[in-house]
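Archive entry: two folds, one per protein. Generate the first.
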Amino acid sequence: MTPLRTALLAAALLTSLGAQAQSCVQVEVQNLRPQEGSLMVAAYTDAADFNTKPATTLRMRTGASATLSFSVCGLSGPSVALSMFQDLNGNGKLDASVLGMPIEPWGASGKPPGFAAPTWESSQVPLDGRTIVVNLSK
């Protein structure tokens, strides 16, 4: 086997292994405001990147229902942390009051704290095939 053929075979094998290591997770978001704005989702797979560098992001229009189900793919690692908000006014950011409290519906996977920002520790959930349910604040 030529060195070029060996290198191509190794690259194909590594690409295949990388693709196998990535997975999807099913997400159900509850308490949406139907027909209002977009749902902005960020998925994190590492504590060091939490709230700074998402593994993937999604933006979806809300429908007629207060519940939305979708898949987030391209994730690797043993766990994931999801952070999301409903962008009611379409400005692409989570709006907050003068006191810093969110004024648009938001949520996170896991067990986010009631009166503090979610952390990796509170938001991470295992990538084990179960549907992740997130309840947005009202």
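Generate the second and append.
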Amino acid sequence: MPYIFTPEQANRLLPEIKRRFNKIIIKRDEIIIIQNELNNILNEFLPFKNLFEKKKKLNEAISSLYKEIEEIEDFGILIKSLDEGLLDFPSQRFNEEVWLCWKVGEEKIKFWHGKNEGFLGRKPLSIKGTYDQDNLDDLK
């Protein structure tokens, strides 16, 4: 069962998660570059040696990317979108399982949405009565 985060717990962990997520984005961008280089090798009819060396580099980069993703998800955090920079932290609002939602560029986690809602269903945590946490002052 995944960990259930309060907004305060998620925000305390966020700096480490941001650092790790940035590494994932860098690795993803490296994979795109390597894939383009591999395509160029194929299009230029270079020797097989070049092809297999580049393919090995691509495989290593992909493995490294998945390892980084697994490390974030081992915290109990769901990566919703690399391209949009969306992460969800499992939480509970009253008796309902919900997601605390963070997007790259946001300083803190200030939004939540239902399990079956996405980014467009985000609601601010700071609206009185929408979240059953004792101390929402840290979110302002």
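Annotation attached to the second fold: Residues 132-140 have pLDDT under 50 and may be disordered. The chain has two helices and five strands.
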